[in-house]
Amino acid sequence: MRRNFILGVFLFVFLNACGGSDTDSNTSTTTEAAEDLLVVTTTQLEPMDQTTTTTTTVEEVVVTIPTTTVDTSWEGPVYPLTGLPAYEGIPQAPAVAVKVGNNDEDSLPQHGLREADIVYDIRVENGKSRFLAIYHSRLPETVMPVRSARSSDINLLLNLNHPVFVYWGSNDLVLEEIRAAEWRGGFDSRSAASRWGEEYFKRDSSRPRPDNGKINTQELQGVASGEAETPMPIFEYGDIPQSAVPAAGARWTIWQRVVDYVWDGSLQQWLRYQDGVPHLDETGSPLTADNLLFLYIGYRLSDADPVSPQAISTGSGDGWLLRDGTVTGVRWERQRTSDEWTLSDDETGETVPLDVGTTWVTLARPGEGDILSAEDVKELVAENSNE
Fold first, then answer.
1. Helix, strand or coil for residue 173?
2. Which of 108, 207, 229, 272 could lock 212 by a disulfide, CB 3.0 to 4.6 Å apart?
3. pLDDT, mean of residues 336-343
4. Which phi and psi (to 5°) does residue 245 adopt?
């Protein structure tokens, strides 16, 4: 069923300008209290009533939450990883997961991220992060830069119903982990180092190595074995939670990176900023998302790479769901790697659904995230408007 949510957040400033150590000994369960994590600084806001309009003013910034409108006209199939209508039917083909670089300016701009259904943003060594982009409803001809795999990627693939995992390479011990998971039926994989590398992995001569590796997701989907199947949903989609409150944006801060997301009321999406500037794709347009998930997890040293942090993506913990210009404090749960992600309201325990559309998932340590005030957003946008 298609649900179109109409939600406006009008900012005084014009948003068109957009387009540590990596190791710790955290266990698989994040136990930080929700009240220590959910700090909404926009103002004192009451939970949103889905049938009314709530307006709050922070100096010159106005945040408006209008009535949610649900379109029930579509009763056909929906894409499993976005919840959007599949007017031509659900592709009977596996998801394609690609490891995409985001190390430094040489990684920019990334190609094909806009078409991903789900993007995981995961810590790597040196205080940076890389993406694991999941494709199914749309398959771009070019994804770039394709970079090397990490141990964290493996468990994030195992609830996608045997996808195709695409990466440029890995060290020998990570490769052993990948091969073991593949042998157990977790996924099919392809890398530039494999005997199929020359056929599917190319380099763009206009960019410096190693950030010029590229692939075609349509071609890589075709290498799937007979075990590969259409993915099942890994999130639930539905109405805005009753406990949601307006939010102007969110920030993830790690040692060598600051990522901001800002709600754009005209686009009805979150705009991504990276290190203080709009994060643009290959077309010069800002990267956007319909849903943002901040999931607070543990990281430990990778057994296969002692300088690389490994995300612990099973267990349970606290987090935030940002959708439709709002934020909801959640508890996440995923007891087995084959399980979907379960989100519940951290106050009521009720299931918290995502909006239909694209989802970016930040796998953060507790304490690394902040909800931005409207004043924070105004300052960030103004800084870029003056450049």
1. helix
2. 207
3. 98
4. -125, 155
Structure tokens at 262: 């800002």
CA-to-CA distance for 120 and 232, rounded, in angstroms? Answer: 17
> How far is 187 from 330, CA to CA, in rounded Å?
30
Query: Does the reported pTM lie above 0.90?
Result: no
Residue 119 and residue 256 share a domain: no
DSSP alpha helix (H) spans, 52-168 = 151-157
Instruction: Say yes or no: 203 and 158 in one domain.
Output: yes
Cα separation, 9 vs 138, in Å, equals 28
Residue 278 pairs in a beta bridge with 273
Q: Which two tokens stand for residue 265?
A: 């009321």
Alpha carbons 163 and 291: distance in angstroms, whole number: 22
| Domain residue limits at 254 | 9-74+234-385
Report which residue type is found at 95: A
CA atoms within 13 A on the CB side of 104: 7
CA distance 354 to 335: 20
DSSP state of 85: B
Could you say which of 193, 221, 249 is where a domain stops? 221
> Both 110 and 23 in a single domain?
no
Contact 250, 261 (CB under 8 A): yes
Residue 387's pLDDT band (boundaries 50, 70, 90)?
A: low
- The Cα 179–Cα 188 span in angstroms is 9
Q: Which pLDDT does position 59 carry in this prediction?
A: 35
| Predicted pLDDT of residue 198 | 79
- CA dist list (Å): 62 to 112, 248, 325, 383: 34, 10, 12, 19
Residue 364 CA, distance from chain mean position: 11
Six token digits for residue 32:
């930080």
Phi and psi torsions of 281, nearest 5° = -95, -170
Q: Which helix (H) or strand (E) holds 120?
A: strand 118-123
